[in-house]
Amino acid sequence: MPRETMAQKRERAAEVERRMFEVYGEGACSLDYTDPFRLTVAVVLSAQCTDAAVNKVTPLLWERFPEPADLAAADTAQIEEIIRPLGFYRAKAAKLKGLAQMSVSEFGGTVPQDIDELQRLPGVGRKTANCVMCQAFRDPQGIAVDTHVYRIAHRLKFCGPSANTPDKVEAALLKVYPREQWLYINHQWVHFGREYCRARNPRCSECFVADICPSAGKC
DNA sequence: ATCCCGAGGG
DNA sequence: CCCTCTGGAT
């Protein structure tokens, strides 16, 4: 079997993406992403818990602390009380307060449209910054390679077997996918990785890209 | 029992 | 690189 050319790989990637889009849409979670500050807060809260849980809590948060300045001045115990069901609530409460404080003192009560500046905010790491750039600003700066993206990229062979670091996998993906699609990859692949392309016991027999996946049935 | 759309710190 | 922080869903 001849080695796949880059053009063929891009074509296959485009087909994968088409199908992902059918199943998961833009992948934009139901978090409120119209306001960059609120989106950032919601994404920080969403670490290690479901969007549904976050969406239950954020309305209470906005009600009690309508403006970033209110959150910046808040008593962390009050924040903790509201976000407790999400888990990691002490750390998250401290992050929210710090995030709001920096937002107010350095960014006029909003959040910067810059991947590196975003990561200076307490609680905002690479993954969250990427999410904010994509969802709030529609200005993707790359793909955040977490365990899901790493695993899926390898199984679909969108990167070579020697791509053994997140940076190498990202570099490969950026070449395979056009920039407009970087917006969706993280969101869609995370859902896909949970539902089909699981780390253990992948559901290849039911997977909607199995016919164009080189690893189908081999994981 | 085990896993989760992470970040920060040692 | 490894650990911790926490609750909820399955």
From TrEMBL:
Keywords associated with the record = 4Fe-4S, DNA damage, DNA repair, DNA-binding, Endonuclease, Glycosidase, Hydrolase, Iron, Iron-sulfur, Lyase, Metal-binding, Nuclease
Q: EC?
A: 4.2.99.18
- Biological process (GO), any one: base-excision repair, AP site formation
Which top EC class is given?
Answer: lyase
Cofactor annotation: [4Fe-4S] cluster
Name all HhH-GPD domain ranges: 45-195
- Catalytic activity of the protein: 2'-deoxyribonucleotide-(2'-deoxyribose 5'-phosphate)-2'-deoxyribonucleotide-DNA = a 3'-end 2'-deoxyribonucleotide-(2,3-dehydro-2,3-deoxyribose 5'-phosphate)-DNA + a 5'-end 5'-phospho-2'-deoxyribonucleoside-DNA + H(+)
A GO molecular function held by the record: DNA binding
Coiled-coil regions listed in the entry: none
Which one Pfam family would you cite for this protein? HHH
Cofactor: how and how many bound: Binds 1 [4Fe-4S] cluster.
Q: Where does [4Fe-4S] cluster bind?
A: C197, C204, C207, C213
Q: Does the keyword Methyltransferase apply?
A: no
Against SUPFAM superfamilies, the record matches this protein to: DNA-glycosylase
Recorded hits in InterPro entries, A to Z, give:
DNA_glycosylase, Endonuclease3_FeS-loop_motif, Endouclease-III_FeS-bd_BS, HhH-GPD_domain, HhH_base_excis_C, HhH_motif, Nth
By sequence similarity, the record places it as follows: Belongs to the Nth/MutY family.
Function of this protein?
Answer: DNA repair enzyme that has both DNA N-glycosylase activity and AP-lyase activity. The DNA N-glycosylase activity releases various damaged pyrimidines from DNA by cleaving the N-glycosidic bond, leaving an AP (apurinic/apyrimidinic) site. The AP-lyase activity cleaves the phosphodiester bond 3' to the AP site by a beta-elimination, leaving a 3'-terminal unsaturated sugar and a product with a terminal 5'-phosphate.
Q: What name goes with this protein? A: Endonuclease III
Q: What is the lineage of its organism?
A: Bacteria, Bacillati, Actinomycetota, Coriobacteriia, Coriobacteriales
